[in-house]
Specification:
Helix content: 25-40%
Order of helices and strands: HHHEEEEHEH
Strand order of the largest sheet: 4-3-5
Number of strands: 5
CATH class: Mainly Alpha
Largest sheet: 3 strands, mixed
CATH superfamily: Winged helix-like DNA-binding domain superfamily/Winged helix DNA-binding domain
Low-confidence stretches: none
CATH topology: Arc Repressor Mutant, subunit A
Strand content: 15-25%
Distance between the termini: 48 Å
Shape: globular
Number of domains: 1
Radius of gyration: 16 Å
Structural class: alpha+beta
């Protein structure tokens, strides 16, 4: 079913797209969007719809009860695997030339097609390792 492009939905989508490299909590979104008149209930409702549409990924970090959301429909995310730091939560594109060959090898070896926009490898970024 087609969703209406309400003012609140547009503001949420813009915020998610502007923050594509950072998983976000609902409280972070609510704080940032409060001035635009976006309610917490509108954020929850839209995140649920966006998850159903495959545009947002719900993430829980190991050892934490916090729930984060990551926008997966940004144009620069469509053909990339992602790496996410387990400590700071920052998400990076995996821009390694061999990524395509790994995806093809998995398909050839196991007949399993990887959804690169929704695939996240977890580890620790260079900044957090210091």
């Amino acid at each position: 079913m087609q969703k209406y492009e309400t003012r609140q939905r547009k503001a949420i989508l813009k915020f998610l797209c502007d923050n594509v490299h950072k998983p976000l909590t609902v409280s972070e979104m609510a704080s940032a969007l409060k001035a635009e008149g976006v309610s917490v209930s509108a954020i929850y409702r839209n995140l649920s719809d966006l998850q159903d549409e495959g545009k947002v990924q719900r993430i829980t970090q190991s050892g934490s009860k916090k729930v984060y959301y990551r926008y997966t429909c940004a144009k620069n995310c469509e053909k990339h695997l992602h790496m996410s730091c387990s400590k700071c939560g920052k998400t990076f594109h995996l821009d390694v030339p061999d990524t395509d060959s790994v995806i093809r090898a998995v398909l050839n070896d196991s007949d399993f097609k990887i959804d690169s926009a929704n695939t996240v490898l977890y580890g620790t970024c260079a900044k957090c390792r210091k």
